[in-house]
Design goal:
- The chain has helices spanning about 110-115, 120-150, 150-155, 165-170, 195-340, 350-435, 435-540, 555-590, 595, 600-630, 640-645, 645-675, 680-685, 690-710, 720-735, 745-770, 780-805, 820-850, 860-875, 885-905, 910-915, 925-1050, 1060-1065, 1070-1075, 1080-1115, 1125-1145, 1160-1200, 1215-1220, 1255-1265, and strands spanning about 10-15, 20-25, 35-40, 50, 55, 65, 70-75, 1205, 1210.
- By secondary structure, the chain is mostly helical.
- Among the domains are: about 1-80, Roll (SH3 type barrels); about 590-740; about 740-915, no CATH class; about 1125-1225, no CATH class.
- The protein has a five-stranded antiparallel sheet with strand order 6-3-2-1-7, with no helix packed on it. It has a two-stranded antiparallel sheet with strand order 4-5. Strands 8-9 form a two-stranded antiparallel sheet.
- β4 and β5 (about 55) form a beta hairpin.
- Keywords: Coiled coil, Cytoplasm, Cytoskeleton, Dynein, Microtubule.
- InterPro entries: CAP-Gly_dom_sf, CAP-Gly_domain, Dynactin.
- Belongs to the dynactin 150 kDa subunit family.
- Its main location: cytoplasm.
């Protein structure tokens, strides 16, 4: 076949139901032998023309497929398979059928022999065998048609010469010689059809035997193939064992490889962890560098402050030196004055006075100057103290910061040591892994060798798989062939049985007709003899010859022939219609999806609906046949019971009718419920179709018995009872929640069933009474009488129910409770027990009487009672209370239930008559399901278009993913380079940190030295200031004493002039020794000094209290903690990074690499670039909005009264939202100031004030005061 195939030819793949065009023929790299590459019409393939990286042809994805040449069937232009020129289709001889039957092809052994050469030939031979099986089936159908209609067969076959021997055979009998043979009454009923049918049967049997022999030969050939394949499989098993060993070695190598990969992955994770920790260390170092920079700035500020303080100290030192010079001058003047005062004699009084006044003025001026310098010195010393304390605090703060920085440095150094240790460990592990390179090389070589072996083994496995596939296909074909042969054998057996039945029926009819013919011939002979006698009498009497009787034309015979002929033609036409409908259904189902044909699907639901309706119709036929076959009994006596079968047959009729009516009752409810329930319930019932179909065979068995005329009173009815029980128990399980019941049909069917049961009760009870010696004596006789009377009452109630029911069966709901259905089923069970019990009693009693031979006496009471006890114990089992009580209880239950139903119908007669007039008929669920399936099919069309669009999108995404992967690889290379640069920068950074640390230590040491020097200078200055203070105080006291002395002298001198006053004043310096030596003056000076100190202390105390009160009244100063705010720092960093990214994206635009773009793809590249840029801008906008929302949320959290806390989130208040959304000031009110408060010349006007919350509160407080 491969020679006939060529590229571009359209072919069909066997077994996959796909078609395509040949695009490649030849050897491939993935497997040996010749392969054919197909471009499929539908996306049912496995590739796009390339396998394992090798491109053989081009097509769309899922449209490429590689197959063997044997799996391909060439097609013509119209899509029909082409046949080879050398292929022969031998045909078997077939008998021409009556209704256009054609000769059917059969298989030949040549096709089976050619099947050994290739798989394709074997498939052709199997297809030929299937055709032969189909031919045998059609021949069997033709044989059935021959057996069914021999008259039509004769007429269609054109067997006209057969009329001559018929007439001759009738003439040969010798009866009615005077009649014309054309109108003989026995012309149709002859024995000639029997040899014709027997010849046809023999031909059919011979054909079947030939076909069976052909099948056996095929089976033998296939068995030989199977043996050869088994031998090959044994050889393959050894190869598979070697393959298993190699697989085990490969698995070990794969496990070792996985372990190495796991170790490498763990090392990679540790390296990543170390990189992350190094990154964190770098960030910590950066933070430390920032803190060190802050500390350096603080140290610079401290040095500047120190320099300022040194400059101030120098100025103070200069001022101190100036003061010391002035003090020396003053001390010199004082010594001069002392020497002058201590000198004896001296100048005149006027001159002394003049010198003393001058000196006093000079001293006053010096005191004023000294006072000013002292005030300045005091202010300077206080300022210096304040600055000194401030510097001390700054120094303490810097010391604490230095301690914290030292701790952080220690932590970082320890962490760096740990990192170095981890890096060393990782380096050791990497060295160990590198040391295993030799092992890896060895393993790699072994792996390569193993891969070569695995490739070889894979080729062998592929060949073995091909052989296995061939074997599986042969096994499947054998199984299919065997199944088909079995089916054909069953069909042949069924046809043979049918032919036997038809033959038996024909023989019986022939025997009956021959009997009737014999009777007619005897009658005709008698009549002829009588006519001859009469003629002889007439001749003797009248002595004249009498003419022969006229020929009697048998018109009825011709009418029957034409009627049988038309009936046979109608049957043939109906058979053709049935075949056409079956093929129509097959064609329709072939269009349906698998979900429709699956178990429990819509197809099973349809089959269940048809099954229920079919069983109802079959039960109707069966009841009609049973009634016709077993008529009622007019008189029941002991002779009729023991000698005839009519009574027993009527009893069987009652029992069978009872069960069939019960089955019809539940089947009608099934049919109604399945037409009114939901679709889910319908599908649920459809899942039970195989089980229900098995119970249909019970009805078919009874119908088959009726066909054969084998249905009699000995046929058991347990199968019918089982069928009724199955459907009754399954109904509440499947359709109980729906509660769909047709009340009218339910009551009608149950009335029929119970009526049949009553007839059976009455019949069996009368039989029991006739079999007992004394009919109305004893428990069993009275029980029989009770059953008869009760059955009559029950029949009356049933007639009443039947009259009260609505005539329209479509009235479904008449108001019955759900309990009525259960009660009716219990009534069925009780009646069944009664029927079986009475039947068992009757059967055993008859057997006992016939075995004993006492037919005239009857059975005694003890024996009939014993039989009844055994029967009740057998039927009622654990509910047995004895035959009498059990049957009475069952009857009473049935009677009470029927009376209740009759009373209900009588009470609600008007409601039932007016019910369901306006009720709408529900849509059948099968129609709803059909509409849903149509919608689903429409949706699948839209889904297929969507899937095609999705596939195109996926292709585009794959292309984008490849580009992203390339970008990612570039980014990883850049990342590695950046990490290397970062390592170099870290080393430089560590060196700079060490240098700065050294400089900081040196600065710290210098700072300590200068601090010590500064403290020493301050101590010297303080001692100098204290000494000056003491001298100042002494000078003040002396000044006071001198002023008092002068005042006292002025008060004593009355007549002194201004010049004298000045002279007296000049004498002042000469008195200090006297004043100094006066104890009173010293005491007064001491008291004044105390008062001065006291007054000064009180003033200072009052000032302190006043300042304290003022400080207490002031608002407390905010306490600023040195702990950093992580959230704000994070937001600042995020904002800076976002700002930097935005600026960089705006400052450094990117353009596509035009030189890499293929010609013709320029616009697409620019579109892609613009799309990426738009995505970046959109991403930046999104991140900016998210940053704004984060900042706004943080503002809401930090603002008092601006949030509402919930369990899962924090929401801003309405006022806070308004405040955040406000971009312009809002007018909240106005303050009107009277005109009188305005300054002169200013006109009234409106002044806008933009206030914050605090200033607004101040204004409101001031206005409220």
């Amino acid at each position: 076949m491969s020679e006939q195939l060529k590229v571009g030819q359209k072919v069909k793949v066997t077994g996959k139901d796909v078609q395509g065009v040949i695009a490649f023929i030849g050897p491939t790299s993935f497997a040996a032998d010749t392969w054919i590459g197909l471009k499929l019409d539908e996306p049912k393939g496995k590739n796009n023309g390339s396998v394992q990286g090798v491109e053989y042809f081009k097509c769309e994805d899922k449209h490429g497929l590689f197959v063997k040449p044997s799996q391909v069937i060439p097609l013509d232009e119209h899509g029909k398979p082409l046949r080879d020129a050398g292929e022969e289709t031998p045909k078997a001889r077939a008998r021409p059928s009556s209704v256009g039957t054609k000769p059917k092809p059969t298989t030949s052994r040549l096709s089976l022999a050619s099947s050994r050469q290739s798989l394709a030939d074997s498939r052709q031979s199997l297809s030929g065998s299937r055709q032969s099986l189909a031919g045998s089936r059609q021949s069997l159908m033709g044989s059935r048609s021959h057996l069914a209609s021999p008259i039509v067969e004769k007429s269609d076959a054109g067997d006209h010469p057969s009329q001559i021997p018929k007439r001759a055979s009738f003439i040969e009998t010798g009866f009615v010689e005077t009649l014309n043979p054309q109108f003989t009454p026995g012309q149709v009923i002859t024995t000639t059809p029997t040899p014709i049918t027997s010849v046809d049967e023999k031909i059919n049997v011979i054909q079947l035997q030939q076909e069976i022999e052909n099948r056996n030969q095929q089976i033998r050939d296939l068995g030989e193939k199977l043996e050869t394949l088994k031998i090959k499989r044994q050889e393959d098993k050894e190869k598979l064992k070697e393959l298993d060993k190699l697989k085990i070695q490969l698995e070990q190598l794969v496990e070792f490889k996985t372990k190495i990969m796991e170790v490498q992955a763990s090392l990679q994770r540790e390296v990543q962890r170390a990189k992350q920790e190094a990154k964190e260390a770098v960030e910590a170092k950066e933070a430390h560098a920032e803190e060190v920079a802050d500390l350096a700035e603080a140290v610079e500020m401290a040095t500047l402050d120190k320099e300022m303080a040194e400059e101030k100290a120098e100025t103070l030192q200069l001022e101190l030196e100036v003061c010391k010079e002035k003090l020396e001058e003053v001390t010199l003047d004082l010594k001069i004055l002392k020497t002058e005062m201590q000198e004896p004699g001296g100048t005149s009084a006027s001159g002394e006075e003049a010198v003393s006044t001058y000196e006093v003025k000079q001293l006053q001026q010096q005191n004023a100057r000294l006072r000013e310098t002292l005030v300045r010195l005091r202010d300077l010393s206080a300022h210096d103290k304040h600055e000194y304390q401030k510097l001390l605090k700054d120094i303490d703060q810097k010391k604490s910061e230095i301690v914290e920085l030292g701790k952080t440095k220690e932590k970082l150094s320890a962490r760096v040591e740990e990192m170095e240790q981890q890096v060393a460990d990782l380096q050791e592990q990497v060295d160990a892994a590198m040391g295993a390179e030799e092992m890896v090389v060895i393993l790699g070589e072994q792996k390569l060798t193993l891969e070569e072996k695995v490739a070889q083994l894979l080729e062998e496995v592929a060949e073995l798989e091909a052989l296995q596939d061939m074997n599986d296909q042969l096994v499947e074909s054998n199984a299919e062939l065997e199944a088909e042969l079995r089916e054909d054998l069953d069909m042949a057996r069924m046809a043979a049985k049918q032919a036997m039945r038809d033959r038996d029926a024909a023989l019986e009819t022939i025997a009956d007709r021959e009997a009737t013919l014999n009777k007619f011939r005897e009658l005709v002979q008698k009549l002829q003899e009588q006519s001859l006698q009469l003629q002889s009498r007439l001749e003797t009497e009248s002595s004249k010859p009498v003419s022969a009787l006229p020929e009697i034309v048998d018109f009825t015979k011709m009418f029957n022939e034409t009627k049988a002929h038309t009936k046979a033609i109608d049957l043939e036409l109906r058979r053709v219609e049935i075949q056409q409908l079956q093929s129509h259904i097959k064609f329709l189902t072939s269009y349906m999806p698998d979900s429709f044909m699956n178990r429990g699907g819509d197809y099973d639901a349809v089959l269940v609906l048809l099954l229920v309706l079919r069983m109802i119709q079959k039960t109707e036929i069966l009841i009609g046949q049973i009634k016709d076959k077993f008529p009622g009994v007019d008189k029941i006596d002991r002779a009729a019971i023991l000698k005839g079968h009519a009574v027993e047959q009527f009893s069987f009729r009652c029992r069978a009718s009872f069960y069939i009516y019960a089955l019809q009752s539940i089947l009608h409810q099934y049919y109604y419920a399945l037409n009114t329930c939901k679709t889910e319930a319908l599908l649920k019932v459809g899942a039970t179709y195989p089980e229900m179909a098995s119970y249909e065979k019970i009805i078919d068995g009874f119908i088959e018995l009726v066909k054969r005329d084998q249905l009699d009173e000995n046929v058991p009815t347990e199968a019918l009872e089982k069928c009724v029980g199955y459907f009754n128990t399954l109904f509440p399980v499947l359709l109980g929640p729906e509660n769909r019941l047709n009340h009218t049909q339910l009551l009608v069917d149950n009335v029929k069933s119970l009526t049949s049961a009553c007839d059976g009760f009455n019949n069996d009870s009368i039989v029991i009474r006739n079999l007992i010696e004394t009919a109305n004596v004893g428990d069993i006789g009275l029980l029989a009488q009770h059953v008869i009377t009760t059955s009559e009452q029950l029949q009356q109630q049933l007639k009443l129910i039947k009259r009260r029911l609505p005539p329209d069966s479509n009235v479904a709901n008449i108001g019955l409770n759900k309990e009525v259905f259960e009660n009716l089923y219990q009534c069925y069970q009780h009646c069944g027990r009664i029927i079986k019990t009475l039947q068992d009693i009757v059967k055993n009693s008859v057997q006992l009487m016939t075995s004993s031979g006492e037919l005239e006496k009857g059975l005694p009471q003890d024996k009939i009672k014993e039989i009844a006890l055994n029967a009740s114990d057998k039927i009622y089992e654990q509910d047995d209370l004895g035959p009498v009580q059990s049957i009475k209880n069952s009857l009473s239950f049935v009677v009470t239930q029927t009376t209740q139903i009759a009373q209900f119908l009588q009470d609600n007669e008007y409601e039932i008559a007016t019910a369901n007039k306006n009720e709408e008929k529900p849509i059948p669920p099968i129609q709803i399901r059909a509409d849903a399936v149509k919608k689903e099919l429409e949706q699948t069309k839209t889904l297929t278009s969507k899937l095609e669009n999705k596939e195109s999108d996926i292709k585009e995404l794959r292309k984008a993913l490849k580009e992203k992967q390339e970008q990612l690889s570039e980014m990883t290379i850049r990342k590695e380079l950046a990490e290397k640069k970062l390592g170099n920068v870290n080393k430089d950074y560590e060196l700079t940190i060490e240098k700065l640390q050294r400089k900081l230590e040196e600065a710290h040491n210098n700072y300590k030295k200068k601090e010590k020097e500064f403290e020493e200078t301050l101590d010297h200055l303080q001692t100098d200031i204290d000494s000056l203070e003491n001298e100042k105080g002494e000078m003040k006291e002396k000044l006071k004493l001198l002023s008092k002395k002068t005042q006292m002298e002025l008060s004593t001198s009355r007549s002194a002039s201004g010049s004298q006053l000045s002279a007296q004043q000049s004498l002042g310096p000469s008195l200090p020794a006297v004043v100094k030596d006066s104890p009173l003056l010293l005491q007064e000076i001491e008291s004044l000094r105390k008062l001065f100190h006291q007054e000064r202390n009180e003033r200072i105390k009052l000032e302190n209290e006043k300042i304290k009160k003022e400080l207490d009244s002031l608002a407390p100063l905010p306490s600023f903690k040195t702990t950093p705010d992580e959230v704000l720092d994070k937001l600042f960093k995020e904002g800076a990074l976002l700002k930097q990214e935005i600026l960089m994206s705006l400052a450094k635009p990117k353009f596509p690499q035009i030189y890499k773009v293929k010609p013709g793809n320029g616009p697409a590249a620019w579109k892609k670039h613009f799309a990426e840029e738009n995505d970046k801008l959109a991403d930046l906008n999104r991140r900016a909005r998210e940053f704004q929302t984060k900042v706004a949320n943080e503002i809401i959290k930090r603002k008092m009264g601006g949030r509402v806390e919930a369990d899962f989130a924090v929401f801003p208040t309405i006022e806070m939202v308004k405040a955040l959304s406000e971009s312009k000031p809002v007018n909240i009110g106005y303050v009107k100031i009277p005109k009188s408060y305005l300054p002169k010349g200013e006109k009234p006007r409106i002044v806008d004030l933009e206030l914050d919350f605090i200033n607004l509160q101040k204004i409101l407080q001031s206005l409220s005061c």
